[in-house]
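ingest -> fold -> write
write: protein_1
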Amino acid sequence: MEKDSVRLDKFLWAARFYKTRALAQQMIDSGRVKVDGDRVKPARAIRPGVHISLRQGRTRRLIEVIGVSDKRGSAPQAQLLYREISPPEEIGLFDDE
């Protein structure tokens, strides 16, 4: 049975943005990950269609969720879960830090 939502921390880990769920939780708690422009908690349910803005080191990324999974697969499988939106600054979901 295919899931229709998954926790944000599990999604970020499964989509290979962060190596561990603990690191994903830390980034969410620090405010470096936002869902549709809002600070959220790691347990936030993520569904296709939402926009996630995040930082990986100095890199800003904005993605649109197109699929969800709570299992970590290969990099090609992970890339099927989201669509990159570029450049993120044009969307306005990042605050100047």
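write: protein_2
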Amino acid sequence: MTASSLPYVVFGVTGRTGAAAADALLRSGHPVRVVVRDSVKGRPWAQRGAEVAVADLTDLASMTKALSQVQGAYVVSPQHYNREDLFERAYLIADTTARAAVAADVPRLVALSSVGADRERGTGWIRMNRMFEQRLGETGVSTIFLRAAYFMENWMPMVGQAVRSGTLPTFLAPPQRPLPMVATVDVGSTAAALLLEERTGTSVVTLSGPKDYAPNDIAAIVSATLDKPVDLVVLLEAEWHKALADAHFSTAALAGFTEMTRGLNCSHIDIKSDPGAIEWAGTTPLERVIAELAQRQR
């Protein structure tokens, strides 16, 4: 087997960014191995010609096998917001991924991270991404940390409420301040592109969308998409717990969300806070994502 015939491994294909990464690689004719926990989830990818590996992110043996004999891998650390030990779980996944990458002698990784992962504290959930970066960085494996901006798809439940009631709630404030946001399809396609670059060493790439958007802008876009008035409502911190009741967050996850959102709102979490990062931008406008989200809610 030649080096060029070895597959690229993609984790997270049951989620948005992993699916987009695998899709981009397959469309460009590259061999792909998708990693799933349940073989049934791999069937659609097998039908497209991908190899399917079954692995548990906390099991070293299955992870090492999934990462063996590859050109590179896109790795993610899914976050378990219903667990009280979500940070401990995130470290276990990071440690297992790191040990498996070394054991399998993976030539390079692209690891999904988040803006704010360069900050030591005050980032809430993003601390899990920082753990992922730090543990992988200790391995010596060539790794690109892909720090994505706020996902455009995070607006899905709020768009659903706007469809039903004409009110668009937001945790982000002040409502007139633009924030970098990115579509998950751009995250996945960027991960695929970075894998194909075959660069060596460790680096950080930040990824935003084609422009920044304020909550006021989003309300206007949702209003235009639905062709009806939409009122933006900025939720006070005292209301966050009630607003998130349907998400079934653990107490630890809710505390992490609160700290992260505070960090976003006071600009402590800033896409430009790491001067050594390389800036990339996706091409998908928020208008397109909002239109897709609204269609699903109707």
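write: annotation protein_2
The two ends are 50 Å apart (CA to CA).
The mean pLDDT is 96.
pipeline exit 0
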